[in-house]
Amino acid sequence: MDRRVRQINRRASRVALGSPAPPQADCAACVRARDCLLARAELRGHVAPTVERVVSAGTRIILQGEPVHELVAIKIGLVLLRRRLASGEVCAVALVGPGLALGVCALLSSAAEVDAVALTACRLCARAVRVQHQIPGVAAADGARLLEALADWAAIGRLRTATQRVEETLRRIAHLQGAARVVLPPREVLGQLSACVPETVSRALATLVRRGRIRRGERRGVVYVLA
């Protein structure tokens, strides 16, 4: 990941909430254009112009089971994907970051399969789908990227020890942000992502500090993932 991308990622924690975002984004000039679904030529004529949007942590972007009428690409920040089970319990299943598109199901005229909630302050690019065209080729391309991300998160649950799972979860977050500095998610979320109860997460973090795998940051809730 080049320096410019890392700088953009680090701005996530410094996004001025409530500050006006540009009403219309210039996809051609965006550092994410090469990998972003919204910049794909196949979408021309099927979607409205791209609009940038700033949202605060905790904002619900997509609701599972509800129709989706726009495509949303993450430009800055992290988004938590959650799945509501038949029992009614809601579980965190993955974190996704810059470059990934949400709401691909809008291209297939289907409902959302997960909840998408901003974990950090985020800058998003959104395009409303003008007509209910099915564009399976475009949807499949970005869907494959999401499946790869979900597979990476699922693999964490197969690691043998809780300490390994928590460490790999932190490394995944650091990779998504392009920086070693990690602001820890709430213990319950971090536990679900690493297949641990919150108490086990706390013990695993202490173990990783003792082993020199991570170090505490400048304030509570911040750690640095060491190579």
Describe it for me?
It contains 5 helices and 11 strands; from the N terminus they run H-E-E-E-E-E-E-E-E-H-H-E-H-H-E-E. The protein is of the alpha+beta class. The strands form 3 sheets. The protein has a 4-stranded antiparallel beta sheet. A 4-stranded antiparallel beta sheet has the order 2-7-4-5. The longest helix has 21 residues, at 136-156.
Number of strands: 11
End-to-end Cα distance: 16 Å
Mean pLDDT: 82
Radius of gyration: 18 Å
**Contiguous uncertain segments of 5+ residues:** 11-22
What is the 3D form? globular
How many helices in DSSP terms? 5
Q: How much beta, percentage-wise?
A: 15-25%
* Biggest sheet, spatial arrangement of strands: 1-8-3-6
Tell me about the largest β-sheet.
4 strands, antiparallel
The helix/strand class is: alpha+beta
Portion of residues within helices: 25-40%
Write the H/E string, N to C: HEEEEEEEEHHEHHEE
